[in-house]
Write a structure and sequence with these properties.
The chain is an alpha+beta fold and about 300 residues long. It has 2 domains: about 5-195, Jelly Rolls (Sandwich); about 205-290, Arc Repressor Mutant, subunit A, CATH 1.10.10. The chain is built from 10 helices and 13 strands. The strands form 3 sheets. Strands 1-5-12-7-10-13 form a 6-stranded mixed β-sheet. Strands 4-6-11-8-9 form a 5-stranded mixed β-sheet, with no helix packed on it. Helix 2 runs antiparallel to helix 3. The longest helix has 20 residues, at about 165-185. The N and C termini lie far apart (about 75 Å). The relative contact order is 0.09. InterPro entries: ExsA-like_N (IPR054015), Homeodomain-like_sf (IPR009057), HTH_AraC (IPR018060). It comes from Flavobacterium degerlachei. This is AraC-type DNA-binding protein.
Length: about 300
């Protein structure tokens, strides 16, 4: 069912001028029954019958705006984009100003598909290899509407019209479908854009791991500190670093051990326990395999 959003404006008069104060709209929270964020995926049919100019929007989830009737303009911190019903937008979460204009029949309509960063990361882990991203990537991606997208939106509407305990599963399948279609349609440009949507802040998982690189903790102990099982820890590790945790951690620790020995203050027998080895022999073997020299030769 289409919904009409009523907006309230606060007007203050100064002489002959009226200043209109627009509230900040927290989206998608205002489309739900409460102030909490929806789950990982959320679909909303948005309809207006009044032009709205430069609405202040705090977008807390990445969002597809599949425009079907009307025009839309979005102002970001350092750029802006305008589209009509022939185009749709993928918009990065954050603050922006939205202008939405009616068509000649005095209506504006778009279907919104919100998705969490967790859902995006899950998709990228499955279908994309870790890659570098463009730090200057613009906060939107323009999608040219076509017959496939039109049919896709119809299928989303069909899902929304039925009541089933499997709705979330249906949406997961539909999310993967549109992502794969756009992968195929736009190729690497779209893939790189998706990677740019992932927060580049260090995750709690990486903070725990990297703060224990040079400790003597075992992988199982680090996984415990991350509040993860070993299998979950390994999956997260491979997703972040594109290599196995055992080899990565060993290489980091041996490199630090080499640097420590090169300072000339400590002997191999003084440090092997600090870098996670139970005995000097195992430490010496691993060290020589990596550097071609024994710790004593350093």
């Amino acid at each position: 069912m289409l919904s009409k959003i009523e907006r309230t404006f606060i007007c203050t008069t100064f002489g002959d001028f009226k200043i209109i104060k627009m509230p900040i709209e927290n989206i998608p929270q205002i489309y739900t029954d409460n102030s909490n964020l929806p789950l990982d995926l959320f679909v909303y049919d948005f309809k207006m019958t009044n032009d709205v100019v430069k609405t202040k929007v705090n977008l807390s989830m990445n969002m597809f705006s599949f425009l079907q009737v009307g025009k839309k303009q979005v102002h970001f911190a350092d750029t802006s984009i305008a589209v009509n019903k022939e185009q749709s937008l993928l918009i990065k979460k954050g603050n922006s100003l939205w202008t939405e204009l009616l068509d000649i029949e005095n209506v504006y309509y778009c279907k919104l598909l919100f998705f969490s960063e967790n859902k995006l990361q899950e998709f990228l882990n499955k279908h994309s290899k870790p890659t570098t991203y463009n730090k200057d990537e613009i906060p939107y991606f323009v999608i040219e509407n076509d017959a496939y997208i039109s049919n896709y939106l119809n299928s989303l509407s069909a899902i929304s019209s039925i009541s089933t305990p499997f709705t979330e599963n249906f949406l997961s399948v539909k999310f993967e479908e549109i992502m794969l279609y756009l992968f195929n349609k736009y190729g690497e440009r779209f893939e790189l854009y998706l990677h740019s949507l992932i927060s580049k802040e260090v995750s709690p998982f990486k903070k725990v791991l990297e703060s224990n690189i040079h400790s003597n903790l075992k992988l199982e102990e680090i996984a415990f500190l991350c509040n993860m099982s070993m299998s979950t820890f390994k999956r997260n590790f491979i997703s972040e670093y594109n290599t196995s945790p055992g080899k990565w951690l060993q290489d980091k620790r041996l490199q630090k051990a080499k640097e420590t020995l090169e300072e000339g203050k400590l002997k191999p027998s003084d440090i092997y326990l600090d870098f996670g080895y139970n005995n000097l022999s195992n430490f010496s073997t691993a060290f020589k395999n990596k550097f071609g020299k024994s710790p004593k030769e350093i």
